[in-house]
Amino acid sequence: MSFIITGASGYVGQELAAALLTSHPEATVTLTDVVLPIVPPSATQHSSRTKCIAADLTSPAVVDDLFTDSHRFDTVYLLHGIMSSGSEANFELGMRVNLDASRYILDRLRQVMPGVKVVFTSSLAVYGLAPPGFVIDETNFPAIPSSSYGSQKLIVETLLNDYSRRGFLDGRAVRLPTVTVRAGKPTQAASSFASDIIREPFNGRKAVLPVSQDTEMWICSPATVVENLIRAREIPKEKFGDSRAVNLPGLKVSIREMLEALEEIGGPEKRALVEERYDPDIDRIVQTWTPNFDPKRALEMGFVGDVSMRENIRQYVEGL
Amino acid sequence: MSFIITGASGYVGQELAAALLTSHPEATVTLTDVVLPIVPPSATQHSSRTKCIAADLTSPAVVDDLFTDSHRFDTVYLLHGIMSSGSEANFELGMRVNLDASRYILDRLRQVMPGVKVVFTSSLAVYGLAPPGFVIDETNFPAIPSSSYGSQKLIVETLLNDYSRRGFLDGRAVRLPTVTVRAGKPTQAASSFASDIIREPFNGRKAVLPVSQDTEMWICSPATVVENLIRAREIPKEKFGDSRAVNLPGLKVSIREMLEALEEIGGPEKRALVEERYDPDIDRIVQTWTPNFDPKRALEMGFVGDVSMRENIRQYVEGL
């Protein structure tokens, strides 16, 4: 077996590569990113089965080199992308990376490995603002993005759906909740605080909470996201029905509940490292993310539900 | 005032050009199409205010020539496109004309006439199959196209929405019902029969009905569609809210009701010219078009509702 992951230097890409290497002892995994990816530190014993390639996917020639008819991948994982805030700040860059590079890859794939399985990480940002309390599933609400990032994700989903319907490819688009608790460092993402307030205290550092404790979010643990990315390739295509896009399961949790879980597991001294410092700019963005999703379709298809906030934190602590 | 219409050789493009010339006595109208458009026969008295240009919009250089910063249009009407069956039969052509040419035009417009009003004819084909009896509006059902045509329309809508949100352009995407009764000739479109069974008898010719009389459709008269294309540019952008896409009003009508209206206005001898000859291929396509839409959003915004089937036929007969 042979997998390739684009955007493999990113947090989810690294976790997915490690999981694929561990769960598929015969598989080779190609990691590619604009920054030369490393073999995930937790999977260095498998480095003979990995191949790390620096590749700028906005270059058609680079894509042509990466995907050829002399080597067919079992699954192509498309995880590369300019994140939400970056796509909003730099429209042209977002279009080039999130849309044009993805479309060029899909077109290349249907030429050199027709019918290949493609797992695309989309986002719940394909949905704009929902009425308060309204619970979204895939059938009851239109995807009207309120960001360029969400628009670009929706467009690639639409292409992937049509390419799959026509038999060009076998696409699966999984819409990710906010992935929390992420290892690593705080980022410029508006959602960074959701990981920061857990991760930083466990590393002895202070964290800032820029929104109210009443704020509710739809999150998913990294382990569940990675498990579902693996399942996304294993679930028979027939189970997707009319749409190759699926809202991945997650957990609706308030910041208050997150802090309670932090204190329960880490004690009051860790909890004390979180400082509330309201930031209206971040709050305004976060308030547009609805926390209300019904993941019944994903669960019926065979995706797994998320763990509790406490279990999520325990998994993070175990990984330290 | 100065308007431009792409796809202006088509039936709706010609009707829109005539209506704009009539209703805006000072306006100039540029008609462009890959086939050199003519001045609409009903508007030849206004030919000094028209400009007809043959232009292949899949050529960036041609688009660059058509849209320059030395002449700002008040509204750009994007009506060009490869129709549903054509986009399904020739995927590459549909992508090039319906998606790539449209996107290139939007990008050119935001460079040379930022903020310009753009009216884009989308289609209710952005929706796939709906549950039997389910009544779609813009808020309660996802757009999951079941054709390449619908996918391409949805993608351009998504771009137009994001470009409008960012202030690049002032876009309005109107999703057209099946336009009936169309003048002209029978076409290869699966929906051709809906016009054929009225138009052909009134011209003394036989028409074939390939589906059951129980079949219900969501149609709109040409006059109402044209009126709403004019209103699409007049309605303040604020009324569109979070989405620049709107489901245009139409009329739910069964084939039986259409035939009854034909007989009432044209008499039994016209009705007798319609021959029922079941075509499973056409029926299968038509059954995927839901006839159930609630156009309340469009009506609240200021678009007009459609006329009755009888009035629709009378308008066709008056135009003969």
From TrEMBL, chains A, B:
Pfam families: Epimerase
Domain of life of the source: Eukaryota
Spans through the membrane: none
Gene Ontology MF terms: oxidoreductase activity
Keywords linked to the UniProt accession: Carbohydrate metabolism, NADP
PANTHER family: ADP-L-GLYCERO-D-MANNO-HEPTOSE-6-EPIMERASE, NUCLEOSIDE-DIPHOSPHATE-SUGAR EPIMERASE
NCBIfam families (UniProt xref): ErythonDh
Identification of the protein by name: NAD(P)-binding protein
Species of origin: Aspergillus ibericus CBS 121593
